[in-house]
Design goal:
This protein has 247 residues and is of the alpha+beta class. The protein has 7 helices and 5 strands. The radius of gyration is 31 Å and the shape is rod-shaped.
């Protein structure tokens, strides 16, 4: 009589059935941890851009929501909303002078100062010129509280572009009267430093992008031959330098 072969329980030659199930389980666990890792990675730049957009959308700034008036600072078409743009890198050449000009104009469109604020683009970059009457008293380097809103709006634009910034104080040719500063060099330097300190301390513009320069009466806009011309020469310029310039 032929012997009956004993069953080995393996279902034939090859690997045991439990090994295939184990391999599937290990693969699923690996996929699970890869998925968890992908969820834990946050794009810091996108998060920061979202935060800035929300602040601009709700007009969050010192002094409360912005107010509108009837006349414009400067003629010309405005660029896209500043709150819609992401923070670029130093290699982003799209942030040229014309685009920065449009961003600043858009940020200040509700501030109605006409002669007190001038925004122009030139070979250095974009120059935002603020008159003495707008931010300082005669012979003083203390910023008027009511002008902090304007500096905040400018600083908000600066925080969203990579450009270097030069804050430059200017005076007329007359020596300062009723002032603690001995000459125009001291007064212009103190005013440039006051604006720079506010951008750094209150707006958190990176300090390594800022510099304060006192130029006295050495760079007038117009000749100092009338009271009106002298008034125009007393100013602080916030120069947003082109990406390829450092001064």
């Amino acid at each position: 009589m032929a012997r009956k072969k004993k069953s080995n329980g393996g279902g034939g030659p090859g690997a045991p059935l439990w090994l295939a199930t184990y391999g599937d389980m290990v693969t699923l666990v690996l996929c699970f941890f890869v998925l968890l890792y992908s969820f834990s990675t946050i794009d810091a730049k996108k998060f920061e851009a979202l935060s800035v957009s929300l602040q601009n959308a709700f007009n969050i700034m010192p002094g409360g929501p912005s107010q509108t008036s009837s006349t414009s600072i400067q003629d010309g078409a405005l660029g896209e909303g500043a709150g819609d743009a992401p923070r670029p890198t130093d290699s982003d050449q799209s942030y040229n002078a014309n685009k920065v000009l449009a961003m600043v104009q858009n940020a200040l469109k509700d501030e109605r100062m006409s002669d007190e604020i001038t925004i122009v683009a030139n070979e250095r970059g974009v120059v935002v010129s603020l008159s003495e009457q707008l931010i300082f008293s005669e012979g003083s380097a203390k910023i008027h509280p009511e002008s902090l809103r304007i500096l905040y709006k400018i600083g908000s634009v600066l925080n969203r572009i990579p450009n270097q910034v030069s804050v430059e104080g200017h005076t007329d040719s007359n020596p300062p009267l009723r002032s603690i500063y001995g000459d125009n060099w001291g007064l212009s330097s103190a005013r440039a430093s006051a604006v720079t300190s506010y951008l750094d301390d209150s707006i958190r513009v990176s300090a390594d992008r800022l510099r304060a320069v006192g130029l006295g009466s050495s760079v007038p806009l117009v000749p100092n031959n009338s009271q009106e011309n002298m008034r125009l020469n007393r100013r602080v310029d916030i120069v947003i330098l082109s990406l390829h310039r450092t001064r």
